[in-house]
C-alpha cells in the first residue's frame, strides 16, 4: 500500500530550483534512503514530503489527504500525529532526562505523563538504553543521544519517520549502528522511513535508495532483501 505519494514537486527560491519535478512514492513500512551531492535538494524534498514546506507546485498525498492543500494548523497537527523526525543532532532538550525527551510528542499531544514516559521507557529499552532513562543529554554519548531522538521519533507510532542525516555528527561505526537501530525500530513499529544520508553503505539497511542531483531524482536502486537485520534486543 502506498502511504505517501508526491507528484510533480517543484520548489523554487528565486532563480534556484531546489526541486525540479520530483515524483516519489513511499509504501507503508518501507525504508527509503535519499542520497546526492550537497545542494541537490535532499533536505528540501524531505521537508516538502513532511509538510514542513509548501512546494511551489505539485502534490503530496498522505493516505488520501493532499498536504499541500491543508492549512498551516492542519499540517502542524498532521505532522505531530502521523510523522516522526530525526535530525543530525541537537534536537534534545538539555534540561530534560532521556525518558521525558523521548516522551515529548505524547506530552505535547496531551497524553498523561505516566503513560507517556512508560511508553518512552519501553522504546528506550528496546534501543539499548535501559538504565539511562534519567540521564540528561549532556550525560549521554552522541550515539546514545541519537537513540533517544529515534525513540522520540517513534513514540507516537507514526506512519512515516523522516530523518535528515541522522548520523552526520557521529563517527562511521557509531553512525551505522544508529542507522541499523533506526531502520529496525521503524520496521518493528510499522513506520515507513525516509532517510537522507551520505553513507553509501546505507543500501544494506534500506529497501530502496533514491539518487538526487540538481533537484531531480536521477536514479533508484532497489537493495536486495536485507540479510543483515539485527532484531531489536
Ligand atoms: N530557504 C532557502 N532559501 C534559498 N535557497 C534555498 C533555501 N533552502 C535551500 N535552498 C537552496 O536549494 C538548493 C537545495 O538545498 P537543500 O538544502 O535541499 O540541499 P541538500 O541536498 O539537503 O544539501 P546538503 O547535503 O548540503 O544538506 C540549494 O541550492 C540551496 O542553496
Ligand atoms: Mg541537507
TrEMBL record:
PROSITE patterns: ABC_TRANSPORTER_1, ABC_TRANSPORTER_2. SUPFAM superfamilies: P-loop containing nucleoside triphosphate hydrolases. The keyword ATP-binding applies. CDD domains: ABC_MJ0796_LolCDE_FtsE. Keywords: ATP-binding, Nucleotide-binding, Transport. GO terms for molecular function: ATP binding; ATP hydrolysis activity; transmembrane transporter activity. InterPro entries: AAA+_ATPase, ABC_transporter-like_ATP-bd, ABC_transporter-like_CS, ABC_transpr_LolD-like, MacB-like_ATP-bd, P-loop_NTPase. Residues 4-232 form the ABC transporter domain. SMART domains: AAA. Pfam families: ABC_tran. GO terms for cellular component: membrane protein complex; plasma membrane. The keyword ATP-binding applies. This is ABC transporter related.
Amino acid at each position: 500500500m502506498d502511504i505517501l505519494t508526491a507528484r510533480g514537486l517543484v520548489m523554487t527560491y528565486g532563480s534556484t530550483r531546489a526541486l525540479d519535478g520530483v515524483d516519489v512514492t513511499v509504501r507503508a513500512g518501507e525504508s527509503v534512503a535519499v542520497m546526492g551531492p550537497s545542494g541537490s535538494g535532499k533536505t528540501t524534498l524531505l521537508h516538502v514530503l513532511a509538510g514542513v514546506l509548501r512546494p511551489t507546485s505539485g502534490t503530496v498525498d498522505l493516505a488520501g489527504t493532499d498536504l499541500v492543500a491543508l492549512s498551516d494548523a492542519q499540517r502542524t497537527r498532521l505532522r505531530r500525529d502521523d510523522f516522526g523526525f530525526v535530525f543530525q543532532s541537537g534536537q534534545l532538550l538539555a534540561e530534560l532526562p532521556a525518558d521525558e525527551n523521548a516522551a515529548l510528542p505524547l506530552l505535547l499531544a496531551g497524553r498523561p505523563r505516566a503513560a507517556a514516559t512508560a511508553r518512552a521507557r519501553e522504546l528506550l529499552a528496546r534501543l539499548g538504553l535501559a538504565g539511562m532513562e534519567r540521564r540528561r543529554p549532556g550525560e549521554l554519548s552522541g550515539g546514545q543521544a541519537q537513540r533517544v531522538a529515534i525513540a522520540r521519533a517513534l513514540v507516537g507510532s507514526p506512519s512515516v519517520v523522516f530523518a535528515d542525516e541522522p548520523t552526520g555528527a557521529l563517527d562511521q561505526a557509531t553512525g551505522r549502528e544508529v542507522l541499523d537501530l533506526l531502520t529496525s525500530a521503524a520496521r518493528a513499529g510499522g513506520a515507513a522511513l525516509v532517510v537522507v544520508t551520505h553513507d553509501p553503505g546505507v543500501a544494506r539497511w534500506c529497501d530502496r535508495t533514491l539518487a538526487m542531483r540538481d533537484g531531480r531524482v536521477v536514479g533508484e536502486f532497489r537493495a536486495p532483501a536485507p540479510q543483515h537485520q539485527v532484531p531489536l534486543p
